[in-house]
Amino acid sequence: MTGQTPNTGTIAALRMTRLRTRLQLVLIMIGLLAAGIGLTLMTGPSMTTPIDLLRILVGHDVPGASFAVLELRLPRATMSILTGMSFGLGGVIFQTLLRNPLASPDIIGISAGASAAAVFAIVVLGWSGAAVSITAVAAGLTVALLIYLLAWRDGVSGARLILVGIGLSAMLDSMIAYVLLRAPAWKMQDALRWLTGSVNGATLEEALPVLLSLAAFGGLLLARRDKLEAMRLGDDTAAALGVPLASAKVLAVMSAVGLIAVATAVSGPVAFVAFLSGPIAKYIAGPGRSPLIRAALVGALLMLSGDFAGQHLLIGRYPVGVVTGALGAPYLIFLIIWSNRTERKL
Prior knowledge:
Blueprint: H1 4-42, H2 50-57, H3 66-98, H4 105-108, H5 110-123, H6 130-150, H7 158-181, H8 185-196, H9 204-223, H10 225-231, H11 235-240, H12 245-267, H13 273-285, H14 292-313, H15 320-345
């Protein structure tokens, strides 16, 4: 017994050290997010001092600053955070379930489905606002179901689903290009602005549906994260642990699609946020740890910092989708090259 006590104490100490390290990383990410929010609220054509910002946030009226902070910058920051969390959480669910870093909604066609429907609604039907958002959500859900059905063959293989999604995405991209070529100039500008992915002109009212979907779908995913972690070990292992695979997969995928579809509907298909958040979160979390919360925080940081960079750090002003696209494209190329080299070695 005396020989076991030091070992038990050492294991407990290691676990506490790892727990503290993980908690510190999460707190650092939250601190970075809070700093980004503060910087976003203070920065603009007219700068707001930290003291004036605090006065505004506690309810005081500061002439020349209150309108800019509360009506322009705060909704923009709120939308960036909520959509970033939705993209990050939805993306890591796909990558976890399919055990493939390429299994991102903007790679396998879900975002393309929402985009095609939104472009059709803007250009052909002449719709705007909530009608376009509802159409995009419905199309995202429909395309996700279609991809799942086309990839089904005695179950859904991750590689098969990705290939089906890429093919369907290419077809939808061709539809978007065709509609844009036949669109009048003024409608094409609206469609292109939506396709780029942007939080320009965001309002708190538009952010409410994203908040509700994040609370509902995100809460559901977090409540079932033990089953998701079991599925990362493989279907056979998860089934042996008592996980109902069919229902758990459908519930997780539909929740992830709901998050992605609603976020895409209000901000457009912001490129590569869902794609990048999962790998970064998994690296931060370490092996064998749930990356869900970290992926949501990483997504929020990517959206907030990308929008800030596009508005204030580059020559000219660019929507957030341009910045995240520039960050994500090199990583996608690296991932494909690395995967090919790994397969050759095997």
